[in-house]
């Protein structure tokens, strides 16, 4: 005789089967003493287990339970700003939009330069870069440590920059802009995922 | 459970929360007791469960069943309590529990005590599934939802728990 799968038999015992599957097991049980015995054992075990179900008297009274609990309930719940669950995607969207806007503006600017509609960007960007390299903050820290001066750095960069062809200059500037935006986006992603993970941890009572 | 009471409790009304505790206290205590195996520890677990519920209620979204959410918190808190305790003692150690007073043991029903000991010796995952099934009469689907495991795993855990329990009870009888 072919016996049903043990898990199916158990599902029948637990009242989880219906229709044809239930009927098939029923028919089998009428003919198979071994499976019927298994059902009887499970039934007996269930009855034994239910005997160990604790009665309400096994615990302290409801009043005592509540008095103890009320004293332990925090006065203020952990703060949850209503927007917190939506904030990470919102921030990501906002930064993404900003980054997209900047990339589009740079691309448009370079296109307009290429068409000769606006003067080349390289000279003004170079001036800005040299000014940034001569910043007092760098002069007082990094350059002081390396034994350089802001003017020396400015002159060295101007010399190197002058030696490069205009096409190389434009390409380097483009690369710098893309690199800065890329790093910016990467840091936003890192912040977003750390925030999302912290939030998921805090929101889960499983923790 | 009245939805209004839930909303009130979520907004910080302690009276409403007391009603929620009144409604679910026994259920939580029963499951906690089934897993940790002592009334005193079950009370500690239940306290912890309701503090978690109080803290998380404002963020509770009524997608599923509140009762199942409570079962899930209870099972997790009880399993954490077991882990903190350094897991359950093996059956042999339970049989010779030094803290058990002979008078206390004599007062308990012998058969109940044997079942209780065998239950406590089951692996926590199998024990949780069996307690939810036999104490609380949850369906496979509900157990799967509470323990966050597939229905197939619920079936095999139940089968394993019953098999192990029968074997241990038979061994204990000898």
Please, could you describe this protein's structure?
The complex is a heterodimer of chains A (207) and B (174). Chain A has 207 residues and is mostly helical. Chain A has helices at residues 6-13, 19-31, 33-51, 62-72, 87-114, 122-133, 136-146, 150-163, 166-203. The two termini of chain A are 49 Å apart. With 174 residues, chain B is mostly helical. In chain B, 76% of the residues lie in helices and 0% in strands. Residues 88-98 of chain B have low confidence and may be disordered. The interface between A and B is large, with 36 and 50 residues.
Main sheet characteristics of chain A: none
What spatial form of chain A do the alpha-carbon principal axes imply?
A: elongated
Assign a percent range to the helix content of chain A. Answer: over 70%
Q: Give the beta-strand count of chain B.
A: 0
**Count of DSSP-assigned helices of chain A:** 9
Work out the oligomeric state of the chains in this entry: heterodimer
* Structural class based on helices, strands and sheet pairing of chain B: mainly alpha
Helix content of chain B: over 70%
Instruction: Tell me the radius of gyration of chain B.
Output: 17 Å
Q: Major β-sheet of chain B, in short? A: none
Brief overview:
The complex is a heterodimer of chains A (207) and B (174). Chain A has nine helices and no strands.
Question: Which tags fit this structure?
Answer:
heterodimer, A: 207 residues, mainly alpha, 9 helices, 74% helix, disordered C terminus, B: 174 residues, 10 helices, globular
